[in-house]
Every structure is written in structure tokens, then in C-alpha cells.
Design a protein that fits this description.
The structure is a single chain. The protein folds into three domains: 23-175, 3-Layer(aba) Sandwich (Rossmann fold), CATH 3.40.50.980; 212-437, Rossmann fold (3-Layer(aba) Sandwich); 440-537, GMP Synthetase, Chain A, domain 3, CATH 3.30.300.30. It is globular, with a radius of gyration of 24 Å. The strands form six sheets. It has a nine-stranded mixed beta sheet, sandwiched between helices. It has a five-stranded parallel beta sheet with strand order 4-3-5-6-7, with helices on both faces. With 538 residues, it is an alpha/beta fold. The longest helix is centred in the first third of the chain and has 17 residues, at 46-62. α3 (46-62) packs across α4 (79-90) and α13 (309-317) packs across α14 (349-356). It has 18 helices and 27 strands. 31% of the residues lie in helices and 26% in strands. One of its GO terms (molecular function) is ligase activity.
Length: 538
């Protein structure tokens, strides 16, 4: 009997490799005249955007690039960066977006490690990139994105992006990948410990991430999306692909400030955006009179360190409907969500805000997520107290780390991807992150979540950012040490804030010392705890 099933083979009518590249073709066919991209004074319809993407793909092929060749891009969220998400993989190449704030040495390392064949670079990053190219042991062709908004900035390469895509054919007849397992993108981790690792995404995973995001975020047709998330970060959480699927209007911005975000919200009637908690912090701490008066709710995805409940209360009061999501570079971005339940509507505002900071349950396209003991792989009890490590499985887990078999096998074992994040499991199946495993503070045998202590500190009205790390201690092994950034113009002493902490949390969790000042952050708004740890050990 089985042979009859086996006799039915795949063919081009019933099996097509999944790729997010199909989204832009479909949207152009259906909604070609609708506005796709807005960047300052520049506007492109979906059909114009599709033409430019095909011209880029054609130009790359004419240059001799093709299947599996890495093309690197260092750029702000501009139309060219968006086009790279389509044009580069349409040519069969692999898109490698680099963090715009890393130093020259790391840029050179990534260009070398990724076997990059071409660098497309925004001249805004002239100084660092020129220094990086000098460190590279080989020549690499460079194409400049020259943004008129920047004025006269020195060139880096000998060709400019517009001239380059003009060599291509806007009617280029590209094809979907032969195999959906083919690499579409190569993203490097932030490298907070040692060298960054290259995370390889495939076409299938990127397609499914987009479909999962539509379902999980309940995205409507034609949202107006403000691209706050840097497109170098997990390919901007895959939203360049997702928003094409929904025929969105995408507002691109180079500047992430409260003033520019508020201006875009008012001018374009933004319906959706994503951003790290630091972005939410910018918005809630902006002067009251600068905030737009909204007569509708804006849907916001936030990911990174869990936003404290106090911040979520403030964002809700502003008309922002924030959903906490969780993910990593290795999982194409967000893979779990705090799916809101009707029975929570009756809770107090403070209780709702606390639940909102849970990362919740797996997206529909994630086949499994759990919290396990790192050493044994056994699931921890769903008691909201026992800490374990978050593990994930599904098609939105990376292919692996580029040229690093050892790290790949260490991260993926027993059918799970091990995240390195500590969490508890609640009885309703919702996961709540407590920390990166390396950030858990073990004091006198007690596990202290730095995220929890930070959550208490954020309740203080004058605190706009807080980070808590372990400080070695002769008696306790480790004790919590806090770094705090205060609202402008506020004066509060360490003794006063420590005294305030007494009324907030258990004695063993309270910071033993507090240092004030601006906190070091990555380009994606994550506080660099390794820098803070180093500062108390020096």
C-alpha cells in the first residue's frame, strides 16, 4: 500500500520552495501602486521598489556574483537597506547586514569570516569602514550609498549605489531558490563574549517567521509600519519581509529619538512599530507636551530585556499597546509572545502590567519551546519559581553557526536549541525570562534575578535605566551591584536610593551599592552588562 503513496512524487505544480522573496512579487501584482517606502522626501510604490530590487539582483549577477556568495551591507534603515533584503537573495547571494555601531576591528573580522565578496556601505559610516578596510588582508569591492540627507560626506568606494543598480535590468527574471534550505542571510551575534558568531538563516525559516508574525501580532492588511528596529538586527526581526507580505506602507528613519518617532507617528499615522525597551523608555520619559494626542492605539512589539511593569503602565497610558516578545539572533528574532487572555482584563493595571512582561508562549510556527535543566535536559516544574534554561525547536531555528561546527553542536543538542536564557515556567504554560544564565547572581546560595531587581529600581520615578550585575564578595560569593541612569536634572544620593530599596525588596536582593551615570548600550539598546562587570573588577 505504501508504494502508492511513494509513487506520488513532488513536482513543480505541488511543491514550491518557501521563500519570502515571493511576497514582494505577490504584493506588486496586487497593490503595485500603493506606497511601499517613505524615507524623508523619497517615496516608492511597491512596483517601483520591486523594480529597484530586481535591478540590484541583475547588477550583482552581471558582476559575477551568484549562489552562496556573501554580500555585506552596512547601512541605516534607508530604502537601499530594504532593497538589499530582496535584491541580494534574488541573485542567489547571501545577505550579511552589519551592526552600524561596531568598531573597525570587528567589521574587518566579519568581512573576513563571512567570506564577503562585496560591501555596500552607507557613507555615514565612512570613518569606521575605511579603518576596517585597511585592516582587511584582501581587497573587496565597495559600493557607496550616498544619502543626500547627509550632505557632502567623503566617498569610500569608487561606485555609487544608484549608478550600480542602473547597470542592472529592472525586469530581471529572477527565480526562487532551488532548495528552501538554501542560505538567505548571515547575521552576526553581538559578540558580548568573545568573537561574534555568524548565524545562518534559510529561505524556509524567513518565510515562516513572517507568516508566524502576521498571526501572532494579528497584523491587518496595509499597516503603516515605522521601522525603528535596525535592519541589521536579525534582519530587522524579519519585518522587511513580513511587511511586504501585508502590503504595508513602511516609514524608514535614520534617527531614533523621541522627537523623530513622535513626528513620524503624527505625520504618517503609524499603526505599528517594534523596538527594544530602551526605545519605550525614550518615549515615556519625553516631555509630556511633545507626545502626540492619539485617538487610536498603536501596536508595539518589544523584545530584549523584559520591560519593567512600571514602564508598561506608562506606555499603556500613552496609547501604545505593547506586546512583549522573546527571541534571539539564532531564532530569526521573536519566537514567543505574551498572548493576552480575556480573563486578565479584570485584573488591576499593576497586575496586568506584570503579566505583560512575561514572554509567554511559542509563536504558531515554532514547534516547541520549554524550560529545562541545562545539565539534564529535563523539564522544570511549571511552578513559576524553578529556574531553568529556555529551549526552542522549529523551522525558525538557524541552520547553524557559519564555519563553527563546535559552537553549532554545543547550541543544538537532543533535538533542542539551547538559548542560554534563564526562565521560570508558569502553570498556564507561559514562560517568564529571569536572566541570561550568565547574569544570574548567586548570593549565599540564593539565585537572584538581576532582571527582577532592575524591575524594582525602575519603579522609582526618577530612574530611567537600571542594570544590576554580580559583584564578587568574600562573605556571600556574589552580591547585587546596581548601575542607575537618572532623569535629567534630578539629584538623589546613593544612600537615599538604597533606603528606598528597603521598602521594595527582600534584603538579600537589594543592591549593596549603586553607581549613577549613563549606561553603556549596544546599538540595539541592550545594556552592556559585560562592560559594567568589568568596571567593578578593574
Amino acid at each position: 500500500m505504501h508504494q502508492h503513496y511513494e509513487a506520488l512524487a513532488k513536482n513543480k505544480a505541488n511543491y514550491v520552495p518557501l521563500s519570502p522573496l515571493s511576497f514582494i512579487q505577490r504584493t506588486t501584482d496586487l497593490f503595485g501602486d500603493r506606497t511601499a517606502l517613505i524615507y524623508g522626501d523619497r517615496r516608492y510604490s511597491w512596483s517601483e521598489t520591486y523594480d529597484r530590487c530586481r535591478a540590484l539582483a541583475s547588477a550583482l549577477v552581471k558582476m559575477g556574483l551568484g549562489l552562496g556568495d556573501t554580500v555585506s551591507v552596512i547601512a541605516a534603515n534607508t530604502p537601499e537597506m530594504f532593497e538589499a533584503h530582496y535584491g541580494i537573495p534574488m541573485a542567489g547571494c547571501v545577505l550579511n547586514t552589519l551592526n552600524t555601531r561596531i568598531e573597525a576591528e570587528t567589521i574587518a573580522y566579519i568581512l573576513d569570516n563571512s567570506d564577503s565578496r562585496l560591501l555596500i556601505v552607507d557613507t555615514a559610516f565612512h570613518e569606521t569602514v575605511v579603518a576596517a578596510l585597511k585592516l582587511l588582508d584582501r581587497d573587496i569591492p565597495v559600493i557607496d550609498i550616498r544619502d543626500p540627507a547627509l550632505g557632502d560626506v567623503p566617498h569610500i568606494g569608487d561606485r555609487d549605489y544608484e549608478a550600480f543598480i542602473a547597470t542592472g535590468d529592472k525586469d530581471y527574471d529572477w527565480e526562487l531558490p532551488e532548495d528552501e534550505w538554501q542560505a538567505i542571510a548571515l547575521s552576526y551575534t553581538s559578540g558580548t563574549s568573545g568573537r561574534p558568531k555568524g548565524v545562518v538563516y534559510h529561505h524556509r525559516g524567513s518565510y515562516l517567521m513572517s507568516v508566524g508574525t502576521v498571526t501572532a501580532w494579528e497584523l491587518p492588511r496595509h499597516p503603516t509600519y515605522l521601522y525603528v528596529v535596525p535592519m541589521f538586527h536579525c534582519n530587522g526581526w524579519g519585518h522587511a519581509w513580513t511587511m511586504a507580505l501585508m502590503a504595508a506602507t513602511i516609514v524608514l528613519t535614520r534617527t531614533i529619538t523621541a522627537a523623530s518617532i513622535f513626528e513620524d507617528i503624527e505625520k504618517h499615522k503609524i499603526t505599528h512599530f517594534g523596538g527594544a525597551p530602551i526605545v519605550l523608555s525614550l518615549l515615556v520619559n519625553a516631555p509630556e507636551d511633545t507626545r502626540p494626542k492619539l485617538d487610536y492605539k498603536i501596536k508595539v512589539l518589544t523584545a530584549g530585556a523584559p520591560p519593567p511593569a512600571a514602564m508598561l503602565e506608562k506606555t499603556a497610558a500613552m496609547g501604545l499597546e505593547v506586546m512583549q516578545v522573546y527571541g534571539l539572533t539564532e531564532t530569526y528574532g521573536h519566537v514567543t509572545q505574551c498572548l493576552w487572555r480575556a480573563e486578565w482584563d479584570a485584573l488591576t493595571f499593576a497586575e496586568q502590567a506584570d503579566i505583560q512582561s512575561w514572554q509567554g508562549i511559542a509563536f504558531p510556527v515554532v514547534e516547541g519551546s520549554a524550560v529545562v535543566e541545562s545539565a539534564t535536559g529535563k523539564e522544570v516544574p511549571r511552578d513559576g519559581e524553578t529556574q531553568g534554561e529556555i529551549v526552542v525547536r522549529g523551522n525558525v531555528v538557524m541552520k547553524g553557526y557559519y564555519k563553527d561546527a563546535e559552537a553549532t553542536s554545543a547550541a543544538m543538542r537532543d533535538g533542542w536549541f539551547y538559548s542560554g536564557d534563564a526562565a521560570v515556567w508558569h502553570k498556564n504554560g507561559y514562560v517568564q525570562i529571569k536572566d541570561r544564565l550568565k547574569d544570574v547572581i548567586i548570593s549565599g546560595g540564593e539565585n537572584i534575578s538581576s532582571v527582577e531587581v532592575e524591575g524594582y529600581l525602575y519603579r522609582h520615578p526618577d530612574v530611567i535605566a537600571a542594570a544590576v550585575v554580580a559583584k564578587p564578595d568574600d562573605k556571600w560569593g556574589e552580591v547585587p551591584y546596581a548601575f542607575v541612569e537618572l532623569r535629567d536634572g534630578v539629584t538623589i544620593t546613593e544612600a537615599e536610593l538604597l533606603e528606598w530599596c528597603r521598602g521594595q525588596m527582600a534584603g538579600f536582593k537589594r543592591p549593596k551599592a549603586i553607581k549613577f551615570g549613563e549606561l553603556p548600550k549596544t546599538s540595539t539598546g541592550k545594556i552592556q552588562k559585560f562592560v559594567l562587570r568589568q568596571s567593578i573588577q578593574d
